[in-house]
Amino acid sequence: MTRSLFALSLGFGLAAVAAQDVFAEPRRACAKRPVVLEALSARFGKARQSIALVNGGMVMEIFAGPRGTWTATITRPDGTTCIIAAGTAYERVDEEPVPHGAPA
Hints:
33% of the residues lie in helices and 31% in strands. It has a 5-stranded antiparallel sheet with strand order 1-5-4-3-2, with helices on one face.
C-alpha cells in the first residue's frame, strides 16, 4: 500500500513539474503570434474557440477546425506564440458555471 501511494505521488509530482516546465519555458514550435495565427487559419482552417490568462502574463488559446482537430497555444508577453498541444475530437460545450459550493 505504501509503495503504491509513493508511486502515485511520484507520478503526480512529475506531472506537476512537467506542466510548470511547459508554462515556464515552452519548447514547442514557436513563432511571432501573427505567423502562428496565419498558419492555423490558412493552412489548417482553425479558428479560436477559447482564451484564458495564464501565470506570468501569458495567454492560452484553443483553436479548432471543422473536422474536430484542435491546437492549444501559449502566447508570452513578448508576443511569441508556442504550440503546446494538439489533438482530435474537439467538441464545443456550452455549460453554465456551477456556483462555488454548489453540488456539480
